[in-house]
Amino acid sequence: MSDIRPAGPLDPETQQSEALDQVAPATVPDTAQPGVPPSAQPKTKKKDGKPASLWTDAWYDLRRRPLFIGSAIMIFILVVMAIFPQLFTSVNPYDAATCQLIDARTPPSAGHLFGQDNQGCDVFAKTIYGARVSIMVGVTTMIVTALFGGLLGLIAGFRSGATDVILSRTTEIFFAIPLILGALLILVIFGRGNVWTVMLALSVLAWPMTFRIMRASVITAKNQDYVMAARALGAGAGRIMFRHILPNALAPVIVIAMINLGGFIAAEAALSYLGVGIQSPEISWGLMIADARDRFLEAWHPLIFPSIFLSITVLAFIMLGDAVRDALDPKLR
Q1: What is the pTM of this model?
Q2: Buried-most residue among 148, 155, 201, 312 (CB within 10 A)?
Q3: Calculated CA dihedral for residues 149, 152, 158, 163, nearest 10 degrees
Q4: Which domains does the chain have, with CATH numbers?
Q5: Element (H, E) at 162
């Protein structure tokens, strides 16, 4: 039996818009078959009978992964700690600004849960407040590098030719500069490190990795049949880039951004430890570790506790990135 179609023709613009919307959905299902456009791919079904996207399937898979649940809980606690440190320091009668030099290097006790550092400041309160700077630097640097590197990678992969060559060669120059060494030189030029200069130094040097990931994903996606069909139907470059290619090339960038976030927090701590990052009176885990290193044999607690929190934070973000990577890659399920 032939299909019954409504009588009356549609105007050309409506026909073209509907055709382009059917060429490539925002995501590709995990049951995708190679060489078959997304519009013809078999789709999994949700409970309401609607086709499930890659992101829906990934979220369904993530909720059942202990690695994701554990890392998400740790990150949630750390974020709350960074935004509302008073909720955690309320159990302690001292704040980060209260220092009693006469009680320097006092070991942990009921009054000072983590003891006191070399200046007689409460280590517990400083450790809690140190989460704010570290997470702020990591999250902001991650967002800046993902947006900047991702946009350049999208342009380079889609345009090809001279644009790709120029951007790729520029990226290789930045790749040749080690992150910590390059950031150290930039911060020395500024003269005094603070939250904003540390974020700037890391962002300037860390975007090339996101660029390469996005560029490779775009080159793979732009040769797919659904992109060619959209181009044949008259879609413009902007529509193809942001409607068809970007959603299908975004997953690897999200994964690498989450993994890099932990690395940025560790890099900030390293720069503060070397004396060119966060400076007093700001509070940072790296700065606390640097202040406690010379008297470690006399008092171990000012160094151990911020080191533990730093390690847990970096590990949590790396674990989250690994879980998201496994969920977004059908081959790893």
Answers
A1: 0.76
A2: 201
A3: -140
A4: 60-83+114-332 (1.10.3720.10)
A5: helix 161-175
